[in-house]
Task: inverse folding
């Protein structure tokens, strides 16, 4: 397959629908001690033995800090409409209350280059790299961090204003809160049920506090928040309640306060002893109107009650899985979009802000055959079309990721990129999935001339 096939008469064929690629700062930049940047929680976490596969870190990563210009040229060459990136908080505020002009200028050059090449810029303020000096004061367990995030949003949006086309406050608060402070699998590596829920509330409060600041400083940009969402299915009919709870905890817990001004009752009931202190007015702050929500989708979950009455996931052994072990299920993306549309009367437009597959890709004679990823993207692009046909307002789709990078606790052993990176030489090579993406977008551009 040398290009993805867009269904005829699909909204995805129009030039108004945004196709893009996505990255995040800590995963690609490197340069962790350059440009005035100070350590993040991930710099600290990577130094702890056994926390990251092979002891890997983002110290160098894809060296985007030095190679950003050629990377943006590569993005333009793919024919996408937009580039989704994140800003590293410790580059902008390397000390509490101290704004680093060099950090702002670094991202300013990237944004200017993107616009010069006809690319819209989607910027995430927080993609998990909390400054270590804030973690030293409790991190997201400290309510004050929510207000520090608002100060950070002020510094960024005051400088960039509407030169950023689309702002995102948080990327996947579920991961930040639960993997970071509940299960300890991600930075800062804290384990505790109450801690996980406390961090989640403070993250959402930070989002809400930032929204009026972003609107004030960038009135013509779009503003929203990105959630990861994994639709759940019952293993048997008797397990429907298990699936319902999985969805409530996995993403309703984060989306409901934004779109409904409340937390889901299923989680409030089951986690009664672990709930954070929610002050009067908090939910009014969190439920500030958003222009869009982003959804990151990779796989589905099949849930059941085990013999102890606990909820567990059931691996579908007869299904195809990616290298990371996640089931490939495009129908889950369509189902997820339809369920969201049914649940929220005020559902804003949606961007699919991440979607992709991990592989064990090798570059052989300048060619990277990632046949499974090609099929993965084809199936999920069709799933987006089907959701639009079912009445869901979806305005864009971003492939994760632009290039192989530091995959958090998995280090460099999982390759999600549509561009292969040789970490020894930093050579970039378009995989077959990138070539198919490029060819599809070239055909669409010709149709829209």
Result:
């Amino acid at each position: 397959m040398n290009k993805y096939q867009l269904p005829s008469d699909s909204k995805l064929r129009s030039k108004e629908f945004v196709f893009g690629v996505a990255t995040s700062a800590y995963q690609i930049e490197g340069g962790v001690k350059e440009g005035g940047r100070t350590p993040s929680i991930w710099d600290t976490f990577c130094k702890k033995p056994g926390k990251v596969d092979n002891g890997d870190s983002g110290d160098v990563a894809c060296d985007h800090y030095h190679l950003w210009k050629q990377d943006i040229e590569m993005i333009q060459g793919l024919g996408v409409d937009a580039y989704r990136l994140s800003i590293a908080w410790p580059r902008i505020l390397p000390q509490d209350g101290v704004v680093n002009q060099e950090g702002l200028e670094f991202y300013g050059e990237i944004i200017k280059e993107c616009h010069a090449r006809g690319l819209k810029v989607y910027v995430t303020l927080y993609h998990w790299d909390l400054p270590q000096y804030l973690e030293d004061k409790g991190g997201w367990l400290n309510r004050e961090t929510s207000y520090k995030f608002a100060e950070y949003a002020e510094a960024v949006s005051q400088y960039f204003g509407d030169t950023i086309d689309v702002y995102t406050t948080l990327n996947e608060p579920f991961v930040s809160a639960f993997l970071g402070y509940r299960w300890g699998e991600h930075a800062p590596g804290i384990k505790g049920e109450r801690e996980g829920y406390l961090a989640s509330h403070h993250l959402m409060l930070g989002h809400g506090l930032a929204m009026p600041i972003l609107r004030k400083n960038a009135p013509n940009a779009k503003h929203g928040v990105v959630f990861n969402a994994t639709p759940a299915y019952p293993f048997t009919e008797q397990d429907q309640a298990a699936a319902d709870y999985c969805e409530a905890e996995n993403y309703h817990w984060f989306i409901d306060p934004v779109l409904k001004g409340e937390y889901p009752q299923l989680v409030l009931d089951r986690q009664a002893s672990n709930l954070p202190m929610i002050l009067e007015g908090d939910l009014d702050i969190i439920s500030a109107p958003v222009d869009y929500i982003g959804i990151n989708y990779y796989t589905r979950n099949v849930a059941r009650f085990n013999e102890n009455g606990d909820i567990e996931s059931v691996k579908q052994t007869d299904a195809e899985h990616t290298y990371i072990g996640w089931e490939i299920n495009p129908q889950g993306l369509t189902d997820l979009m339809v369920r969201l549309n049914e649940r929220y009367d005020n559902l804003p437009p949606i961007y699919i802000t991440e979607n992709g597959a991990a592989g064990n890709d090798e570059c052989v004679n300048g060619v990277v055959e990632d046949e499974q990823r090609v099929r993965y993207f084809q199936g999920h692009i069709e799933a987006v079309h089907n959701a639009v046909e079912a009445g869901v307002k979806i305005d864009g789709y971003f492939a994760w990721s632009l290039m192989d990078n530091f995959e958090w606790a998995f280090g460099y052993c999982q390759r999600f990129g549509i561009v292969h990176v040789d970490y020894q030489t930093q050579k970039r090579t378009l995989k077959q999935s990138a070539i198919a993406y490029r060819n599809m977008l070239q055909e669409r551009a010709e149709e829209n001339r």
